[in-house]
Amino acid sequence: MHWLGQPFQERPTQLFIGILIAALAVVTVLNLALPAGHPLHVSTYTVTLLGKYLSYALLAVAVDLVWGYLGILSLGHGAFFALGGYAMGMYLMRQIGDRGVYGDPVLPDFMVFLNWDSLPWYWQGFDMAWFAFLMVLLAPGALALVFGFLAFRSRVTGVYLSIITQALTFALMLAFFRNEMGFGGNNGLTDFKELLGFDLRSDATRLGLFIASGVALALGYVLCRAIVGSKLGRVCVASRDAEARTRFLGYRVERVQLFVFVVSAMLAGVAGALYVPQVGIINPSEFSPLFSIEIVVWVALGGRATLYGAVIGAILVNYAKTVFTGVMPDAWLFALGGLFVLVTVLLPKGIAGLLAWRFKRPDFHDRHPGDGNLSREEATA
Amino acid sequence: MNILKELANRDRVFDFLAPADSPVDVRHGPILYMEDVTVSFDGFKAIDNLNLTIDDGELRCIIGPNGAGKTTMMDIITGKTRPDTGKVWFGSRHDLLTMNEPEIARLGIGRKFQKPTVFEALTVFENLELAMSADKRVLPTLTARMNGAMRDRIDEVLEMTGLVAQRRQLAGILSHGQKQWLEIGMLLMQRPRLLLVDEPVAGMTEQEMERTAELLTGLAGKQSVVVVEHDMGFVRSIARKVTVLHQGSVLAEGSMDQVQGDPRVIEVYLGESEEAV
């Protein structure tokens, strides 16, 4: 398991994990220790908002893993996020028990409303937490496995793959809108009461979910760093830039792509599962193509192929969205689009590129070609 | 079941009895032996009764005008093209016509294409690391660890290709010549017995050509090298033995001087190109 331990020896990863833990600790202390009227007090509302940003950040890291390192621009990662969210939502629905409006001990309210007399087969088992949490990983993972297997085996890449991923998430959105699907139609799943016995409306649970999101982000980040820092990560970069050449060296590129794609989908599922209890609802709008494109914009703004750039992008854009939609709701999409255009033109490497340039260190990647001995020969010749 | 069927078949040597990676047998001299090979595409004979023998450790240059069949010949050796008739043997044990491309590559025939393709976002060292023979399935690659022997092998190849100082540089910022050497280095990582090099000095400066000549002559002896090249000056500087191809078969073979004096060669090739030079 040395490859999993590798990231802990890298300076940037240590720094990232350190900042994340410090931020979690500061927010926790400011929330718990200070009285509500204190100017530095962080309200539970803000804590939940930050928890939502952190789950978005994990989603962005998952997208950066496939887009930045594998060169696969997925415009459908919202689908994996939503599937993880629905798996969590189904568990939360079963936890409501007879406390629903209709008081049915087994059936969720919407099923009673639709006059269903028993649970559909795919709702079985979701009353058990371990099963539901397993499904948070397996449902998006299985979809990514089947989808990726078919796409990568046929060597569908580039724009075509992006378009198919859009179609995938759009198709799922239409399917989940239907009441017959058994996922609550366009209302989705909501009115959750408790998670693992903890009251979802209590301040302590909300703080706990915020910390859980932070920990999940840290673990997901380390996992992605371990993958991109391994030899497999270098094969990913190689296949991103010269796929045929990588195949020629004997690597089964389509299997590498499938493996990384499935890992990324599972991370997106975990992000969705953490998102749902914090916002209190999951509905088909999470499948909307627009949301999946927004994720890509976060990553592009933060800086591709850095992982931490994705985190910065997700948090900044969503913070801006919260502020903007409060002040001028109608202008938000224009602001987002404008920001995207500006960054693409002025900062092609995103905010991460700006940071790397500002804190430039003379490490080997920056070495100028003129330092090579051959070029020196050429210069004297 | 298959094994039982094989056992019932008494008149042949069973595949599973022969070691899977049996070494190339060069005790009888040649490492590559082509006899009466003919390939035609839609009636056009790209290779016509070609006979060619490369000795173990030899450095051979193949020249010939455009359309002489040089690339098709390489394609046959690497298994990309199947000849209509003829024999192609690697050593005296391996019939290349029964093998597919990956099998031939694993046997130790490396081919460098004309246009260098290196992984520009990776360092020189990492390029060589990926080219190293290893278990290339997904999970073994994820957990792969570099050991001392691997590091030594990479250092050795860096030394051979003269890229020691560039080991930590991104391949994308190398000069054209350096990229060509890195590409040859990537082939060397797989410890080939026979190296097929297609136009290695196209687009190189004088100094780069000299370095390439040194590199290729240094490789010969340890492995056999076949170079296809247009640049006559370069061929003269490295070749001990030159084969001239014309219309798909061997027109002349011998030292550069012998070949240059051959009136048929002067007529079809050297004459024109000497004038051009």
TrEMBL record, chain A:
Subcellular location: Cell inner membrane
PANTHER family associated with the record: HIGH-AFFINITY BRANCHED-CHAIN AMINO ACID TRANSPORT SYSTEM PERMEASE (PTHR30482), SLR1201 PROTEIN (PTHR30482:SF4)
NCBIfam families, per the entry: urea_trans_UrtC
Record keywords, A-Z: Cell membrane, Membrane, Transmembrane, Transmembrane helix
Protein name from the UniProt record: ABC transporter permease
Phylogenetic classification of the source organism: Bacteria, Pseudomonadati, Pseudomonadota, Gammaproteobacteria, Oceanospirillales
The keyword Transmembrane is assigned to this record: yes
Topological category with respect to the lipid bilayer: Multi-pass membrane protein
Entry superkingdom: Bacteria
UniProtKB/TrEMBL annotation, chain B:
Alphabetical keyword list: ATP-binding, Nucleotide-binding, Transport
Single Gene Ontology MF annotation: ATP binding
InterPro entries: ABC_AA/LPS_Transport, ABC_transporter-like_ATP-bd, ABC_transptr_urea_ATP-bd_UrtD, BCA_ABC_TP_C, P-loop_NTPase
Gene3D superfamilies: P-loop containing nucleotide triphosphate hydrolases
Pfam family, one: BCA_ABC_TP_C
Residues covered by the ABC transporter domain: 32-272
Record keyword Transmembrane present: no
PROSITE patterns: ABC_TRANSPORTER_2
Name of the protein this chain belongs to: ABC transporter ATP-binding protein
Species: Litchfieldella qijiaojingensis
